[in-house]
UniProtKB/TrEMBL annotation:
The keyword Signal does not apply. SMART domains: HTH_GNTR. This is GntR family transcriptional regulator. It comes from the Bacteria. It holds the Pfam family GntR. GO terms for molecular function: DNA binding; DNA-binding transcription factor activity. The keyword Transcription applies. Keywords: DNA-binding, Transcription, Transcription regulation. Residues 9-77 form the HTH gntR-type domain.
Amino acid sequence: MSIEFDNNLPIYLQIMNYIKREIVTGKLKAGDKIPSVRELAAELQINPNTVQRTFQELEREAIVETRRGLGRYVTSEESKIMMIKKEMAGDLLERFIHGMQELGFTSEDIAAIVAEAVHSNSSESKN
């Protein structure tokens, strides 16, 4: 695991986002074991308390679950994973739309640009 940390965002949030991305992209699958606090802290060279906070937040969001004596595991609830995926897609869309509006595009322009890009991308995928 390698993360380039951004000084403008708390490290525990960056690790949470990284783990969520690993789950959504299928690199970490439902029911997979995640590294221990010590393993992850050593790998990322950060304070174990930061990793502990990350895991506590992931547990609070029901993204990971602790199995007593066995460690922490990715939730086996596919609906929860799909919800994370939709949240991440929503965040991406919000940033994209905001950026396009800053460039002066209207909602109709943005919709047309996206439709054209999707069409172009799907045409390229077929070739």
